[in-house]
Amino acid sequence: MEWSFQTAEELVVALHAGAVTSVELTDEAIARIERDDEVINAICVPDFDRARAAAHRADQARARGEDRPLLGIPVTVKESYNMTGLPTTWGMPPHRDYMPAEDAVQVSRLKAAGAVVLGKTNVPLGLQDIQSFNEIYGTTNNPWDHGRTPGGSSGGSAAALASGFGALSIGSDIAGSLRTPAHFCGVYAHKPTLGLAANRGMVLPSEPALPVDLDLAVVGPMARTARDLTLLLDVMAGPDPLTHGMAHRLALPPARHERLRDFRVLVLDEHPLIPTGSAVRAGVNRVAAALVDGGARVERHSSLLPDLTEAATLYTQLLISNSVARFPIESQEQLRTRAAGLSADDQSLDAVRLRAMVFSHRDWMEANNRRELHRHGWRQLFAEFDAVVCPITPTPAFPHDHNPNPLKRRIDIDGVGYPYLDQLVWAGLATMPGLPATAIPAGRSPEGLPVGVQLIGPMFEDRTPLRLAELLEQKIGGFQAPK
């Protein structure tokens, strides 16, 4: 029996029944990584000796009658999480030797749940790209087409899952970093509600690992099935014990519905600022057809939807001002001069990005106040709908593009080039207001590349899009291993 592509849920049952041991699962995963990862380059920091030791301990614990949610399950962890005994670099050469003193909260939670960590997965420089390459660890390739990116910044994790390197992974998301790699690699990911899962220790190597309320950014689960996402989210959810004492578990409300026919869904496939490629549009339509066929109430338009152009503008302002504060890219004087030179009626996202690079605190507060109006708009929308289905990016995985200046890159949508960073607008739709969003496989492009869509849900009602993902998986299928 080969176990590498079994779900975490199936592995839990098999371990429980004594059909396999954690040591056997771990040895098989390591053998697969050693055989296949040379061409994929998903696992940038292997930790095989400690994984085997952890697997042995998991088998002993099970023999003693212990039972934990992930006891003995092989998993991977995104490179950006602190893990004692392994470097945390974020792909940044100055930090290549940084060794953290303690595990990130989520690494501690994985270990406490009994998971066996195989190693760390590759990321882009500073987690600042929707590809996964850096000077320290090189380039991660898409398992479906090695000439294409697996996405980013959790690209190593998605490529690992698609390649059968562990059953689960943990990543993070500020600009689609969980959802885009899932979409590009044909796996599942869930961007939790902002603040739902503690993030301490998923931090730049130069910064202290403190409990901070990040804006926009979240940590979250990746898997090969919707139910596995829920299994891992239940391990990850909850505030930081440093700030909330032992009040670790957040009681998330149950899904709004259990049956497809009870869901009310708004389906979007067009954005005012960027076209949707034909392959992604087909994926959205496939999901919409499955919802209709299952008896769900499906609408294509709603006056309750917050304005998509303003949403993308606010998202860009909040994202870029946040990013520039952490990664200064050029002198503020030069940026101010360039921003001042823009025409007042230039409202392109390129112009929005440049102005956001020199935001004052007052500018940020203004954008933040407008975000609250959007949040209220979403609350009203989710009184009438249970989920919104929409693209994650406008295209399937694109060819590697290592132009050092992302502002010079273009994204090809059905033969026409667009500014590379404009493809973030769909990811930002859920990120800007802090909403949960589940990325699911939705078929394949004519070239055979995976295509995913996201299911956006109401704040702190993460179980609603997760349950919808599970119902859709039963109806249209889910992960398939690349040939």
TrEMBL record:
Membrane-traversing stretches: none
Cited InterPro entries: Amidase_CS (IPR020556), Amidase_dom (IPR023631), AS_sf (IPR036928), FAAH2 (IPR052739)
Pfam families listed in its UniProt record: Amidase
Coiled coil stretches, renumbered: none
Gene3D superfamilies referenced in this protein's UniProt entry, alphabetically: Amidase signature (AS) domain
GO cellular component: endomembrane system
Name of this chain's protein: Amidase
Organism this protein belongs to: Rugosimonospora africana
Taxonomic lineage from the root: Bacteria, Bacillati, Actinomycetota, Actinomycetes, Micromonosporales
Gene that encodes the chain: amiE
